[in-house]
Amino acid sequence: MEESLTLLKLIKRDFGLGEVDLRTLSPLTLAFVGDCVYDLILRTVIVERHNASPNQLHREKSRLAKAPAQAEMAEALQEHLTQEEIAVYRRGRNAKSHTTAKNASVLDYRKATGLEALYGWLYLSGQEERLLQLIRLSLDVLGWRL
Fold this sequence. Notes:
Strand content: under 5%
Helix content: 55-70%
Radius of gyration: 16 Å
Number of strands: 0
Distance between the termini: 36 Å
Oligomer: single chain
Shape: globular
Number of helices: 7
Order of helices and strands: HHHHHHH
Low-confidence stretches: none
């Protein structure tokens, strides 16, 4: 039986990338990837569910991608995370960033960075199903709809 290829596996194959020890990546690097992956997931779901103008689509995506919303999501997920996931989240939350969000408190920005680091780590470690599970769970716990 042929193994199914995920986007990550296709990228690694087509660009000749090897395995990376994720423990060697900085939490801000994980957050860099996690931000993009989370954004792609949101955009995919929103576009599939809504036939709207790009401006409306952007506003809907931004509602859930802003630091305060991500901070709420991070809080909602805490009791559902494994010890390893908590460790990755904390590394991201505690990372010293030289930037801050325009419309967020420092605490919300740090929590959002932790969540993005967790999402990046899950994606890069090939745990896409867990990544999607956590996003769905956080939306459900908070009663938010896409």
